[in-house]
Design goal:
Helix content is about 80%, strand content about 0%. The protein has helices at about 1-60, 65-70, 85-90, 95-125, 130-140, 145-160, 165-190, 195-205, 210-220, 220-235, 240-245, 255-265, 270-290, 290-300. By secondary structure, the protein is an all-alpha fold.
């Protein structure tokens, strides 16, 4: 009888122990997924922004101050802050011209990839033409081609047609290299659009171009925005392609800063503000379109 009673007691206590463990785990999970996790992610985000803050404060200090102490010294000596470095930057024609060249390269390369990639993605997703699947497999195959493999052949081709060393040559290379990913991304996104919606638009008399502009493009906004951000960041921060295909008159800001380091190693009063401007513009673009970026990344995850 006693053994039987002990067995019943153990049996009864087992669910209670399980409930206790479950409730403890639930409390821990709730705490981690609540305020603690938010604070942790905030700290991680602030930690990753420390280099940007350091570069900003360095660009606002005089060269002799930067040589003597670290950028954190401004918190105890705020009188070190000055805009003289940015004034010198505006007086440096190499940096200002390269910044303009960066805009002239990045904006067309981004717009062309988005427009052409959207049209091609729609064609591969919803238009019937001979060899469509094989053509798409060829586009996917181009995704694995390293950029270094194409540098010399394309440079030789551009030299023969007379655009090597020009802004047009840099733009065309970025467009050609960015299109395979753009077509792959947008084709897969457009293929998730309900067929009934497109058929209803066709029954209303919409042609392919009108269907693309009025139905597909608005629905594909998040994916297109994500593609635009990816392409903009890639082209703006690129230095390898610009080193090969640009000359002194068409070099972007990344190459100009590298040239300043090579020629004037102590020209920190120009390098610091130039590097900060080169960094802050992509950050501003990303934060301005972060909602569309997240929507595009999550598109298709829930059906």
């Amino acid at each position: 009888m006693t053994a039987h009673a002990e067995g019943l007691t153990k049996t009864a206590s087992a669910p209670e122990a399980k409930t206790a463990r479950s409730s403890l785990g639930s409390r821990i999970a709730g705490a981690v997924s609540g305020g603690v996790l938010r604070v942790f992610l905030l700290l991680v985000g602030l930690f990753w922004l420390v280099p940007t803050l350091g570069l900003l404060l360095s660009s606002l200090r005089k060269p002799e101050d930067m040589s003597a102490t670290g950028w954190w010294k401004v918190f105890t000596t705020p009188s070190q802050l000055t805009l003289d470095s940015y004034q010198k930057l505006l007086e440096n024609s190499d940096i200002t011209n390269s910044l303009l060249n960066t805009v002239l390269i990045t904006v067309p390369a981004t717009l062309l990839v988005v427009v052409i990639g959207s049209l091609a993605g729609y064609a591969f997703a919803w238009m019937e033409f001979p060899g469509r699947d094989w053509w798409f497999l060829g586009v996917v195959g181009l995704l694995v081609v390293p950029v270094q493999v194409a540098l010399l052949p394309i440079a030789e081709l551009f030299g023969k047609i007379g655009i090597f060393g020009s802004i047009i040559g840099v733009v065309l290379f970025h467009v050609g290299y960015g299109l395979p990913f753009a077509v792959f991304l947008l084709r897969n996104f457009f293929a998730e659009i309900p067929r009934e919606l497109l058929e209803a638009a066709r029954l209303d008399g919409a042609g392919e171009l009108r269907l693309f502009a009025r139905v597909v493009m608005p629905l594909g906004g998040p994916a297109i925005a994500s593609l635009g951000i990816f392409q903009f960041l890639w082209v703006w921060n690129d230095m390898l392609v610009a080193l090969v295909f640009s000359d002194s008159g068409s070099q972007p800001i990344t190459v100009a800063l590298q040239t300043q380091v090579r020629q004037f190693g102590n020209n920190i009063d120009v390098l610091a503000p130039g590097a900060f401007i080169s960094m802050v513009i992509p950050l501003a673009v990303f934060f301005a379109f972060q909602r569309q970026f997240v929507s595009g990344v999550m598109a298709g995850a829930v059906k």
